[in-house]
Amino acid sequence: AIQLNYPKGKAAALCLVGMTYSKNDPNLSLTYYKQALQIAEQINDQSGISTYLMSIGIANKAVGNIEASNKAYDQALQIAIALKDQSQQIKLLHNISLNRSSMGQYPEAVESLQKMIAMTSRVGDKLMLLKGYSSIAVIYQRQGNSPQALEHYLSALKISEQLDKKQSIASILINIAGIQSDLNESKTALETLHRAQQLAKEMGDSAI
Q1: Contacts of 38 (CB under 8 A, 6+ apart)
Q2: Which of 7, 147, 172, 191 has the fewest CB atoms found within 10 Å of its own CB?
Q3: Nearest alpha-carbon partner for 157 in 195, 122, 185
């Protein structure tokens, strides 16, 4: 696609190359993402622009440039809203919340996640809904808001059970047990932890 005179395909190919370097060399992946973005802007491919901006946001976070990451995410989100692309909006709101949380901006992170959860509920994307509930529970836990953290972990647990994601169920149960212990519900916490251990045993994981 890079050799062909097909700009949209060339941009997509450059993004794919960037993705191959995302873990080992995020700075190099950033270079490819920017090249893809430049092509998308030249041909006014709004969907592509939003996609490549999101990739740029991810790469910038990986190299520790949160400010540039936030800027890219915000630009990508505005385009996704204009395009009424809910799937893209959901991903971006989740990524934005992770940035805000890492900066200690918990109210802003919660606001992004609440928007994401509402939208994800409407479109029925259970995997992203699981991510949303789990992420917001972690933030409430960091803030010391045990009741809200428990409520959202229970929501995440319900979805994990619906999806039969045993690893996720075990992990969430451990978090729930910790909160129940914090709330002085020792007996319930032990029962929850035992359930997590039994599940881990079924999966052949003795680490829990």
Answers
A1: none
A2: 147
A3: 195
